[in-house]
Structures are given as structure tokens and as C-alpha cells.
Amino acid sequence: MPTKPKLGQNFLHDQPAIQRIVAALGDCSRETVIEIGPGRGALTRVLSAQAAHVLAIELDDTLIDRLRVELPAGRVTVLHQDVLDFDFAAASQQAGHPLAVVGNLPYYITSPILLKLAESHNSLDRAVLMMQREVAHRVAAPPGSRDYGLLSVTVQLYGPVEKLFTLPPGAFSPPPQVHSTVIRWRIAPRFAALGIDNKAAFFDFARSAFAQKRKTLANNLRAAGLSPADIIRAFAAAHIDSQARAEALPIESLAVLWKNLQDADQPLRNEQPPLG
Fold first, then answer.
1. Residue 208 contacts by C-beta under 8 Å, 6 or more apart in sequence?
2. 145 phi/psi in degrees, rounded to 5
3. Contact 126, 184 (CB under 8 A)
4. What is the domain range of residue 158?
């Protein structure tokens, strides 16, 4: 069956990898699991033997009929839908518990899917996701590393991320031109613990903080419209070096700085995308 390049289809066929992905979810024998992009169903078949029920969300209409015929109807429900439009809250309410999520994410919409999952955090417990290796590095990056940035902060604010293992192109059909990494994301939002009472305002601040990696954090904030006096005051109160760059600061320090900037007279000017 031909693939649709525009959908970013690279079907996993490595059986040991499939077993490891399902094992990474842990015990799901009493849970409903959401699978994003079942493709030809290789992962779904193994998952259906472990989970109480699988909701498999597939966008490609050429795969739907085959999936519905080949997968056990009592344990798997195949939905012809874009995951970005999927109602996780309704699915969680119907299941009676927070959901586990698994999937081989299309490379071209990985960030929008991660943002969708973050927005649905009240309905989720954990996610085991495969993505391009370089994106996984960014998602899981610690402060001070080359890959740490806005994507790292955004995802990690919703819970800890760990990289599990990496697969070569040959694990897929057709083989992509990149390696792929599997991560596990425990959904445990940190906003309340960090004193972030306005998510939108904090993310506006974070987008400004990471706008230009070559610039210092203070320069990025000045470019976003904050006054030098407000910046100096907030840096001093947060005990942050005036020459620090955003990628050097842990989320905790960014949260403290943001709180000290809340009484600034000028709002941030920000035109950066949510997960740039």
C-alpha cells in the first residue's frame, strides 16, 4: 500500500521496538489508550492485547477500512479523524479515568500535537511518543544545554520528559532520512507549584525570552518592549545575572523572573509562534 508523503507516513515495523513502546506505557490493562496515527496497525495489534481498549485515531482514509477489518473490534475503535480535532476530555470522561497516549508522530506536525496534548492535560496521565531525534532532544533538554529552549520549557511545564531509546531509519517503511527517538512524558503540570497563575502571560514572556538565542535574556526582553529599569529591578530581585541567556536558566528561575516582571508598566510585544 503506497504512503502519502504529505502525511509524513513512515510505518514502524521493528517488532522489538514495538514491544518496548508498549512496555513503556506500563500496566494499561484497565485503561483506555489513545493511539495517534496507527498507520498499518503494527503497534495497535500489540497494544490491543495489553490495554482495556484502544482508540486509534487515523487521518488517512485509505487505511481506515483495512484497520477496521484487521483489528479486534471489541478492543479497538478506529476513528477517522485529525488528532488536532480530537476531544480528549470527552474520551477521558467516557473512559472514567485520565488517558494514556501513544503514537509515532508525523514529523511535520509534532509541535502542534504536543501543544494539543498540553492543552488536554486535565484528561491525560502519560504519553509515550516517537518523534524525530532532534525534536526529542529539544523536548527533553535540560537548562544550559544547546537544545534547551521554548519547546523544552513548554512541554516540561506540563510534566517531566525522559528519552527512552532511538531507532534508525531502517526500523520504518519507507525509511525516513532521520533517526527517531521515543520519549515518555508524565503529565503533571507545574504551574501552581511555580506560582504561575496566568499561563498565557507566562508563555508570552517565555517566547520573548527565547526569541533570539544569540542575545542575552535582558536584550530579548528589551526588544519585547520592557523598560531597562523594570528589567534591572526584576533581575536583581530574582538573583539572575544581567548577562544571562534564557537557555541557561531552569524553569524555576524563569518563573521567579516572570513574577518579578508582572508589575512592569509596558506589556510584552510578542509575535513569536507558541512552540517555535
1. 220, 221, 223, 224, 268, 269, 270, 272
2. -90, 165
3. yes
4. 5-189
Tally of domains in the chain: 2
Assess contact for 262 and 224: CB atoms under 8 A: no
Higher pLDDT, 45 or 267: 45
Residues 172 and 52 in one domain: yes
Q: What is the mean pLDDT of the chain?
A: 92
Give dist(CA 100, CA 25) in Å, integer: 7
d(CA 239, CA 233) in angstroms, rounded, equals 10
Extract the C-alpha cell encoding 47: 497494544
Quick one: pLDDT at residue 276?
Answer: 46
**Residue 37 φ/ψ, nearest 5 degrees:** 70, 70
Cα distances (Å, whole numbers) of residue 244 to 228, 239, 251, 266: 15, 11, 14, 22
Q: What is the pTM of this model?
A: 0.91
d(CA 54, CA 100): 10
Contact predicate 101/36, CB 8 Å = yes
**Alpha helices (H) along the chain:** 15-24, 42-48, 61-70, 88-95, 110-119, 133-140, 150-156, 191-194, 199-209, 217-223, 228-238, 251-260
Question: Rounded to the nearest 5°, which phi and psi values hold at 129?
Answer: -130, 140
Q: Give yes or no: residues 88 and 101 share one domain.
A: yes
- Of 134, 163, 189, the position where a domain reaches its end is 189
One-letter amino acid at 179 equals H
Own/partner contacts of 62-68, CB < 8 Å, gap of 24 or more, are: 62/1, 62/4, 63/1, 63/38, 63/39, 66/1, 66/40, 66/41, 67/38, 67/40, 67/41
182 with 227, same domain: the answer is: no
